[in-house]
Queue: 4 jobs
Job 1
Amino acid sequence: MPDPDREPNNRSRKVDVDNSTSTSSGWILRGGRVVDRSGDRVADVAIAADGTVAAVGLDLDAAGLGLADAPVLDVTGCIVAPGLVDIHTHLREPGREEAETIESGSRAAALGGFTAIVAMPNTEPTIDSAAVVRQVQSAGMAAGLCDVRVSGAITVGREGKALSPMAEMADLGVRMFTDDGCGVQDDRLMRRALEYSSGLSVPVTLAQHCEVEALSEGGHMHEGEWSSRLGIPGIPAEAEELMVFRDIALARLTGARVHFQHLSTAGAVELVRQAKARGLPVTSEATPHHFTLTHAEVASYDPVFKVNPPLRTADDVAAVKAGLADGTIDAIATDHAPHTAEVKEAPFDHAPCGMLGLETALALGVTELVEPGILTMTQLLAAMSWQPAEIAGIADIHGLPIETGSPAHLVVFDPTEEWTVDPSELASLSANTPYAGRTLRGKVRHTMLCGVPTVLDGKAQR
């Protein structure tokens, strides 16, 4: 990847990778089912030595393409798709490298089929200045197994008091801004942020963690039947819905783009649905845990199930699935949030919020959405590849159709392979997955960034 100081325009940014795991002769993927925004077909994919797609079609003539010496990967029975894009990843670096580093997090991402991730800014120090943006970008270029993009904070220190220097960060390629972990509470400040963002020289998106703290303060799980049974203070659905309502109104007022992070309630999904019907510039995401788990999991008092926003009701889970099915929810984002065992295994009311997500997201989508017929495979991949790439402002590089000349950012996965989640086998430095022992279908075989395998036969290449 280029030096960020020399490439201020994210729209023309290229992706360079260490070619030590590849050969100079390209690759041939034989017999896979190619799924992208242009269609669903069985075809071979030839990858040129320069990291672009050389050809797509049946029974490709490798010699005729100048790829006679290219290694051949038999991907019969597998799906070949544009690499996945996660727009909500916590890499913890800088500041909490004992839980995750850019290297370990990007390795987990590659193993999960991701070729690009957007790092959240709630690090120590906060990513709220050009200097910290450069630091994370440099670490991503040096150690990342995928394209590590950086989001910036909306406010200085994520304290909700003063706007961050968004223009300086945008000049370095930052295209998403969020105070993720806490929402911007001040209505006037959020209006100013939206007006400021819409006047920048490049398009950016403000992403909101939707939580009215006056309603959520002191809560540790969803407020409802189970919080009452367990005696755990709850967070009402209205804490999320009121902020979604406010920011829809501000999007209407300012004309600026707003992205709603990790929607978890039926009411929030319906508000976004109505806003989209009115043509407002809003997008949204949901996490795998919010379409697979409910607040009943907390009955065990296991803090692995503590997350923010909290796990909600079965009706909310059904609403999130419906929102993904009808396009109200644009993206599936992992909200990958690693924590060391030392801090995560504290009593429930003292434990931090967050779950791992990068290595299980695709399989959960296949198992919980595609197999029951809620989404088609194309819809799932749209929500995990090209649609999040659009939101992140990197759709000129990632999520592109697999066609001649496109960058070979690809994932190859077997949608039928079953595997059991074992926290000890995950690449993350942390082990706080709520899916331990769960059998899923859908396993990544290969991940390629610029035609270079970052994962080959299910193994990370460095």
Job 2
Amino acid sequence: MFFRYNYQGLSWALLILVLCGLPGDQFERSNVVNADAAIHVFFYAVLFFLLSVGFIKQTTYRVLREQTLRKVFVITVLYGVLVEVLQGYVFIGRSIEVSDMLFNGLGSLIGMFVFMSIYGRRAYL
């Protein structure tokens, strides 16, 4: 039951990891100001939303259904930090950027706002 409702969020997390693991020269430089920041915010807002919905719908692990938004926020922020650390020490041609970590956290906050706008506060916080 867990994967039935969480495969989308886990797949999105894997997509983020793969894209952030690609060498930096694989991407063309954008002429759009702050395109990198917008991409980070978007990726983590979607990740937060998908994981929140999946955690609430699943019934296998009851502990994930309690205070879901707080738990998902911590998970997504820690995941963003982990991905940045991997970029600095494991992935080739990548580096750690604190600004990316901040934009990942901002994306998580936006994902929380979108989730609460759609589903309401209820007992999810």
Job 3
Amino acid sequence: MNFRIADTFTDSLAKLTGGEQKSAKTTAFDLHLNPANPGMNLHRVDRAKHSNFWSVRVNRDVRAIVHKTSGSLLLCYVGHHGRLGQP
């Protein structure tokens, strides 16, 4: 499986606190090792224009957005749950 990281992910990662960044990096590493792990708490993003966008729980408040197909996983964004996609 191709595992890629978008510039939008690294840009949004830089806006998190040090502890949140560490949690997001750990989640990214765990996704790379086993994206099918049920502990990853993957949920489809409601109202997304494309059905392959998923939300992944990083911690209680932070979520990552990924684009997942059978052959690839792209880390797109990471941020606070109530503010995903907002500046």
Job 4
Amino acid sequence: MKRFWGFIMLISMSAQAQLHEIGFSGGSATLISDIGQDDYLIPEGYFISGLYRRNTNEWISFTFRFSYGTMSDDDALSESAGRRLRAWRSDITVIGGDIMLEYNFLPLNPYKYPHGVWVTPYLGIGAGYHTSFISAYSPSTAGISDIQNTFYMPMAFGIKFSFRNRMKIIWELGPRYSFSDNMEGSLRLDNSSGPLSDRRGNDWYIYNGLSVTFGWGKLPCYLNTF
């Protein structure tokens, strides 16, 4: 009987919220810029990321992410007659890293009785820096190549699913606001083909994908509550 209760206590001690997580993510990428289609929900590329998450408690996490992605914008796919006549296309490779603060709406700890949960929605916001490698061209104008370095603000809405508390699968929709209006090379293109936009807004890109993480390290008992 003592062995039985000892086994139960061992499981209870190991089945706590994890302190560290490491994993990877991937999915579709869509660029919102001055070139290409007007429907910003259609994927125009892909991204892959490696990530590390530090859980400060069951509610709040800090996630560090390094990402690589490619996207294409094509005026031929636009509903605007002016863009189709202009016929510019831009191919972009983006490499960047960011840190994000995440807030869980529910305390994600499936083993914490009676309030533990297996799934929670969450929100995130942070800061990052990226480099975009640009190649843009049209049928009637010489193409350009450019490199753009800028800060960006990552945001996220998603759902975290916990499996046996060590593994998580996470769906995330992540808009990234760039502090640049030149992610697709439009400032350089202005010089050769006239203004491409009225310059009233910077560029965005949106990640939509899944992450898989694996956790280790038990949260101290005094951090299991907020």
